[in-house]
Amino acid sequence: MDERITKSKIMGMADLPEPSVMLMNLIPMFSEENLDMGKLVSEISRDQALVARILKLVNSSYYHLKRKVDSVRAAVSLLGLMTIRQTVYSAVCYDYFPTEERESWSHAYTCSLLVSDLMRNNYVPQNGCLQLTALMHDIGKIVLRRKAPKKYRSVTFKCGREGVPPHLAEREVFGCDHADAGSWLLEAWNMREEIVLPTACHHLESFPEKCRVETSVLSVADWIDNAARGMARPLLSEESLSAAGLSGLNLDVLVASQRELIASVEAEQSGQA
Length: 273
Ligand SMILES: [Fe+2]
Ligand SMILES: [Fe+2]
What we know:
Elements: H1 3-11, H2 21-31, H3 37-45, H4 48-58, H5 72-78, H6 81-93, H7 102-120, H8 130-136, H9 139-147, H10 149-162, H11 166-174, H12 178-188, H13 193-201, H14 212-228, H15 238-243, H16 251-272
Helix pairs in contact: 2-6, 3-5, 4-6, 6-7, 6-8, 7-8, 7-14, 7-16, 8-13, 9-10, 9-12, 10-11, 12-13, 13-14, 14-16
The chain binds fe (ii) ion (2 copies).
């Protein structure tokens, strides 16, 4: 089917996920060279459910804090920008993953934690949008599942029975994959190109010239997280590793430490359930 027809059918859905006002306000704020922390705290404090979720994330064992943090102001003054951006974006994006999408959420969240770690350890360049892109990169799966739940079950079946990667099974069934659907959605939300383009291209074999680094970091993080979850994927190309600045790193070590991260995040979540 013509891609334009597929796109207009999917984007014409009645119950497409909507961009939240909070998310749209946070993106420019986090992109400012000198983030106004006071402005950030008052923006977040307008939403008490969000405040509760941020505090829950900040106090999780992942951050190893010595004492309990009980306000957003304290969290902001105690944690660095990287961690604050990570927890705030995670708390906002969580609502896009309903209960039946817990598995997709877990993957999105631990991918985003991995991207933060790669930036924190200076393995990949610092980038204000990457953590958000990692959280939203597979949102297209939710769109496709919502569009045609039965059809999506046949995608899941194909992946399980034949070991076909989801994006290939989706293309067979829907005529597009979740990377397309996700990027169309984010484009409709007027998201920046450095979020839309890596989302669109994270399963391609070669990356676009524009946003090449962002796309390769995202696809490497996606690959590592999937490998840690036991999902077989084609081997990473040298191009993607070198564009992400990760050529010299031992992937086995990264996969093993991601496996530990996933186990600790999931143990924490099941303890809170
Ligand atoms: Fe994906
Ligand atoms: Fe993914």
